Amino acid sequence: MIKPWTLDPDRLFDPEPSRRGVARELYEAVADLPLVCPHGHVPPVLLADPNASLGTPAELFVVPDHYVFRMLYSQGVPMEDLGVPTRDGTPVETDHRRIWQRFAENFHLFRGTPTGLWLQDELVNVFGVEEKLTGESAQRVYDHLAEKLASPEFAPRTLFERFNVEVLCTTDAATDTLEQHKKLRDEGWGERVRPTLRPDALVNLDTEDWWGSVKKLSEVSGMEVTGYHSFVQAIEERRAFFKEMGAVATDHAALTPHVERLPDAEAEGIFARALRGEAGGDDAARFTAHMLVELARMSVEDGLVMQLHVGSLRNHNETVFGRFGIDTGADIPMATEWTRNLGPLLNEYGSDPRFRLVVYTLDESTYSRELAPLAGHYPGLSLGAPWWFFDSPLGMRRYLDAVVETAGVRNLAGFNDDTRAFASIPARHNVWRRVVSDWLAGLVTTSVVDVEDAREMAWGLASGQAKSTYRLGELV
After folding, report:
1. In the chain, how many domains are there?
2. Number of C-alpha atoms within 13 angstroms, CB side, residue 261?
């Protein structure tokens, strides 16, 4: 008889009895709160198309998920064998059962990782899998999942309701026409699924096919971009359009948080060189640094929350990048300096009540040294949740230990799942809510705060802070 696969209801709680009791109480108060997802990468077509499906088990869990295939790659499993699409024409595995079998045979690699926690939660709680995933059970589990995925109960829109998602924000190129979001709005989903403007392909001059992105900007904005000033005006037009379509935020990725306001003549000169294909030296870095200040200025004027994700050295593995392209598991954290780099932007806009900047870092050594003190002073700055490599139980604990004493809870932006894996959303929020509840229980049992205050803090960290930070509802 197969032993049923179950998850401990007290997982992630400290075993000390008094602390565990408080953690249970706090968790029960927030476990079923609606999910607020202000930043993520779920494709809007998944919800806009009523006939959309999550695909096969391999398409759902393995092929598109860099958290999964980077771990297998690290242990010598070729990405081609996992069906990861190539851009150089290298053939890949197309038999999804074989892909699943390889994944199942290596499922043990995820023990002790956040990915393992999410996958277990999805398989057991979302899909009702009752036996552990191994090489031996792989095909039985595949059949079970395939049957579920083919049923109406597992259509994306149905799961959206089942997951109790209050709002989900996608991430969309600044040149996107938002056709999928238009469909959602026409069907009454506009307040629940919102776009987020990401202009990286335009403001980063060294982006692949930058000129093509500028050309598309001209087309979708209705403004011919012939120079720097028309470029800025076209971006402002796109921001207005996104806001009209329900957007509450923009999103920006940068190697460093360096900002620098350039004189107009310098910005015009760099942009003109880029249009001619002659940009070089530090042109790209200086233009991005300048545009971050300009985008902050736009945020003050139009009220869109500005998000800044910093510190990922992209495409570290040149061979993988050449064969598979971007977002294929080879992005690595790097050291980052915030206090001096962000200084010019915060001095210009950080105290303006109209401005809101949410920052994310992959250099957790800066939490207590720089980011918490900055957020604990500037009204316009909030700290984003532990991101990417630190979206983990221990990463969350280190984050809370490092920032709350200096910044407090009200200067944190709460949680977001930042995921492309739609079915993992409730699992990711659940890990955060469990860790927060246990961390707060530690404060209660050491008499730093009482249970009543801890309940309010847990609610804020679970959903209230995200709603308030992203202007989706005021924190009371």
Report:
1. 2
2. 12
